[in-house]
Batch of 3 targets.
Target 1
Amino acid sequence: MALDTAPLVLVVDDEPAQLALLSYNLKAAGFRVITAKDGEEAVLAVAEQGPDIVLLDWMLPRLSGLEACRQIKASPQGREAAVIMVSARSEESDRVRGLDTGADDYIVKPYSVAEVIARVRANLRRLRPIAVGQVLEMGDIQLDPTAHRVTRAGEHLHLGPTEFRLLAALIERPGKVWTREALLDRVWGRDIYIDTRTVDVHVGRLRKVLCASGREDPIRTVRGAGYAMG
Amino acid sequence: MALDTAPLVLVVDDEPAQLALLSYNLKAAGFRVITAKDGEEAVLAVAEQGPDIVLLDWMLPRLSGLEACRQIKASPQGREAAVIMVSARSEESDRVRGLDTGADDYIVKPYSVAEVIARVRANLRRLRPIAVGQVLEMGDIQLDPTAHRVTRAGEHLHLGPTEFRLLAALIERPGKVWTREALLDRVWGRDIYIDTRTVDVHVGRLRKVLCASGREDPIRTVRGAGYAMG
DNA sequence: CGACCCTGTAACAGTTCTGTGACAGAAAAT
DNA sequence: ATTTTCTGTCACAGAACTGTTACAGGGTCG
């Protein structure tokens, strides 16, 4: 989820062999991998870890893949993840039901590992139009994560580290309203106790830099909720 | 007040005996029940009352259960309801056709009352979290829960936090009539003591914003009952 | 027709929330 | 070691929001 970490993939399958195979190859491809062996575990893992991609087997004990998909897509974490259903059944009706339930993509068994990885990459691209390592852009503001550099209308801006991560979070999901708590998690890190008002102060500082040349304020304050960009 | 929030079940059957049996038992199980005796009545009742569950007999006069299901699922109110088809025919093809039409579940006659109630409960569990998620839409009004943003005919509207949650509740179940007590629960939170008249005031404020540019009022006042949208 | 109930709205006072300047300590750079 | 930058917190003013009340007007029913 964070900019400087590899995408997190959750693999859900009740056959240990499949799990190991996919897990190994995905790790080799540079992803971080977590696993679950049934639907309930999958739903829980999504809520707790917030993966970017969920590879979900159709046939699962305890909670069918279809139902698991529905529950995942109903959770706030699941909405931000791309769910790829994996099924042995190639019938059109299954595909339709799967996609209707909220799945983002569909892979039919037997699959090649290369195909799975390709699909994962494709869905990541779609999930985050601006891929990791690329320049994040919004209006006339550009943010380069690797170079730690921000420009507005071509003009270079100087941001402190916290302001930089704050802007990165906001610009990464245009329009999304972040609560102060969510921003503390995302920008400052989990398990850290800091007054939520601190967020306000840093937003203020960020605004001051962004609007230095009398430009319009790109950060929207949502009273009672938090902040958003765009 | 508990009655106001109990799930609403619409039972559709052309045999009065069946209707009475199901109705009686569902009420005994704590649900609110309304009935319809043919497909047309059913479609109308869904649009007007916005039930949470529709128990739909396969064989109906005026409008077959299948066709009624299709129309129900095509309406905004039906999208929020779970449709359970009830049929004497147990053939697999019927089941597939029913589910393809948009039915959420399928019960085969002869059924036990306990089974029906169990299925209703199961579908309710599955239904609940669906409401939260994507952009809620109704007519020319759009509400984006994640972006905390409301537009009407493309134009941005500014709502306070309470007005926003109020609109979200109303738009989430189009056609459903909310009592003031139910809205206090849903918008303000449970276990809070606030005068019900407060709801009127906030509805007024919400209307003022929604109708700012001389547009039609989308909120319907149901005298003696409460408010509804659509 | 009159009494009563219900709803819409304006006004208001109190509360909550947000933006900002100031400041001291921590961290980093020189 | 000294300077500079950065960070978290606080205090305070102003803005935004909220719940309640009061009153007017329309609907309903005897």
Target 2
Amino acid sequence: MDAIDLSLLELLRGNARLSYAELARQVGLSAPAVHERVGKLEASGVIRAYRAEVEPEAVGLGVTALIGIVEDSGGDTDDVLEAFRRMPEIESCYFMAGVESFLLKARVGTIAELEQLIVRLNRTPGVASTRTSIALSTKWENRPQPVAPPFT
Amino acid sequence: MDAIDLSLLELLRGNARLSYAELARQVGLSAPAVHERVGKLEASGVIRAYRAEVEPEAVGLGVTALIGIVEDSGGDTDDVLEAFRRMPEIESCYFMAGVESFLLKARVGTIAELEQLIVRLNRTPGVASTRTSIALSTKWENRPQPVAPPFT
DNA sequence: TACAGTCCGTGGACGCCATCGACCTGAGCC
DNA sequence: GGCTCAGGTCGATGGCGTCCACGGACTGTA
């Protein structure tokens, strides 16, 4: 993991569909060299995936909500997590410090669907309570940090 | 925007580096047809970007925090937003319903950097107070919803 | 019905790209 | 020195991206 790897990561975070030839030109190596470096970054898990970022409204997911979850004292955290994992509306799941053990980001089409999701969450064994905040608009999301910090 | 477009979106959300030829095979069209459809999805803004998803720890960003912002009654929301936009640590920014006008997701390298970020946020004109929760671990993030809902 | 226009696809062509193997070079180590 | 290995370049080749000409389905109009 050197400066060239960091440039590659930055380029691919900006546009994941750049060709190896183009990446090679940008970092000043040959295409096969870049191919091998990117392959290693993928294999070692530094690059987790390549994703197209889709406008949520365009696929009928206009409602974004952030939901804090307070866990039941008796519940099994793994079971709760597994239940969350089975709910496709939950796009992100963070295990938090604080009273609320989890913070979920969910995306649904309508407020009615959000209501159903909250009901399902409250019924989930191990969940003591939920606290939902609705996002009126997403100013930006998953913005790549422009420069990677100095590296060891 | 028909069923084929939705399949293309789903395929590209799963792997943004699929070739047009491969996409064409999956949806049963020719490569040029897919090329044109994807081009239109990009032009119309349905596809916002293609991003490589990078393991944050691997680039020295091991600390994730979610920060709620209460706005000053006198402040200008646009100015506050602009100030946030200039802080690269802020990866996502939602405008919320509720007492806290914004929810920010920030990623930094160390707790010390988080402290500096919070100080900067509290000093920002228009910000009345902040409430920071630290994510101990990210269970998952930006998971693509498996199937797009029925479409009009 | 006939006709023209539009949309959206296919197939062919051509140049660039991905990818493989062979080879080169410098660093580290006996 | 000479071995080994990591990591690069170069050259070849098959597949891919992309442009263009063409054609069928649908629609509105005479």
Target 3
Amino acid sequence: MDVEDTKYNNTKELILDAAEALLQDRGFNAFSYHHIAQQLGVKNAAIHYHFTSKTDLGTTLIRRFRQRFRDYTRTLERENAGPVSKLECYFAIPASYLQNGRKICPLGVLEAEFNAIPEPMQLESRLLDKEMRDWLAGVLDDGRSQGVFNFEGSIVDKTLVVVAALQGVLQIARVAGPQIFSVTVRQIKRELGVLEKAV
Amino acid sequence: MDVEDTKYNNTKELILDAAEALLQDRGFNAFSYHHIAQQLGVKNAAIHYHFTSKTDLGTTLIRRFRQRFRDYTRTLERENAGPVSKLECYFAIPASYLQNGRKICPLGVLEAEFNAIPEPMQLESRLLDKEMRDWLAGVLDDGRSQGVFNFEGSIVDKTLVVVAALQGVLQIARVAGPQIFSVTVRQIKRELGVLEKAV
DNA sequence: GTCTATAACGTGATAGAC
DNA sequence: GTCTATCACGTTATAGAC
């Protein structure tokens, strides 16, 4: 049993994977232990062995999102990625959500259900939001300093618009179709002054 | 019993009001007939008399949003409101949601829970989205033609970014605080070229 | 139009065998 | 670590009295 076995192929991780997909597909209050159990071919009680409560499961899920984002940005740092490259990687996250079954941003789900989720999950949501938005603000700041971005307004203001627009458009894509996503990303890039080609 | 009585002060309308608040506060799957009944001081079955199913209630709710928006825009038309004025009125909608208990856009809620709401509600959601976005696109088009707006990109692209950003920021306000709303609106205006004062 | 009563079901959760 | 069995509860919904 090497290190890999503790990371993958164990039920706990599979439960989290299933729960994550269900969260981004239906929302926290619209999936149950039974959904997960059925998907993994186990029984209800097996999930409870790994996560004593649904609150526990939900909180762990958000912590995993946070850790994943940290790992992702650290990798970009190690590769000495520039602001433009970092921005592309940031856009790649919602893009993969959309492709992988029209999922939406986890934070969008949690915020939409915010007043109907357990407090520990609310706290974790706040942290996830802060970490992601702070990171993007840094990228925009660097890009502007280096002259590869060109946009109006303060860093904070601009970061908010970008984050909110991406979160929103993933949701709208469910009623308006997936093609609106790339359209929106194109417009966001335009307004960041990073257009590769002229319009 | 005059006309007013049929519009207000009847239980059916009060149920819709309560359901609407609950929808924008907790989401469709996180409120029940009991919540509404309790709030109105009636019993569960009374709600069922007016709305046979929760699907019925939800669908009626979205139809009411659609009707309200239609009425609102018609009023603006009757008043010969210009594009700038119309835009301000459009921003006033999410602003009132935020003020009135940190509610979020109904469409945002419905889209977040999209795969967990009844099909009739999904259909109504599509219509509401199309109607609102088409209207705003018209406003942006007029404003640009008249030279009171000044922005990059196509009307469709720009409309999407504005709508998505507003929808997103209301959600983010729940974890980041209400003050981020006006910040975002300010940035959106900046990028529409309608800033009243210099930054 | 609203009530009481109740049905039928899904849910989160626990106890105890294997 | 997973199972069966079971509990307590909330939910949508219906029947029938008032």
